[in-house]
């Protein structure tokens, strides 16, 4: 009987590690603040994310024709890129506030529904975020926390 209880406890502990819990959310929130920066740093950060996204999914540029997605240096595209990261900033900064996060993800999901954005575009964007954050922070980031929390945000926006 003790073995069963120990095994159940280990399974529960292992499963708890595979989601974006409070500790993971706080880590991501703190690391995001350092990576996202401020002012002109945010512009370069946004451009790096979108250039990486477009390198992985070149056809995704077509979704951004209205804001000159063919040129990530165009002022209209930069403004749009920063608006997107502004929404992500809100989501990340509410990771430790489940009700508020749900409302933000519902809002972002509503903004994206009807655009028929393929899942691989979301995946490319998520991968780009992870790579750019890693490049910005070096070894001072928690990859596992980021994987779980960005996945949670991505699925919330996709409505999955």
Automatic annotation (TrEMBL):
Alphabetical UniProt keywords: Disulfide bond, Heme, Iron, Metal-binding, Oxygen transport, Signal, Transport
PROSITE patterns (UniProt xref): GLOBIN (PS01033)
CDD domains associated with the record: Mb-like (cd01040)
GO molecular function: heme binding; iron ion binding; oxygen binding; oxygen carrier activity
UniProt domain Globin: residue ranges: 19-160
InterPro entries recorded: Globin, Globin-like_OT, Globin-like_sf, Globin/Proto, Haemoglobin_extracell, Mb-like_M
GO CC, one annotated term: extracellular region
Keyword Zinc-finger included in the entry's annotation: no
Disulfide bond residue pairs: 20-149
Signal sequence, renumbered to the chain: 1-16
Binding site for heme b: 112
Keyword Disulfide bond: yes
Homology family: Belongs to the globin family.
Protein name per its UniProtKB record: Erythrocruorin
Organism: Bimastos eiseni
Taxonomic placement: Eukaryota, Metazoa, Spiralia, Lophotrochozoa, Annelida
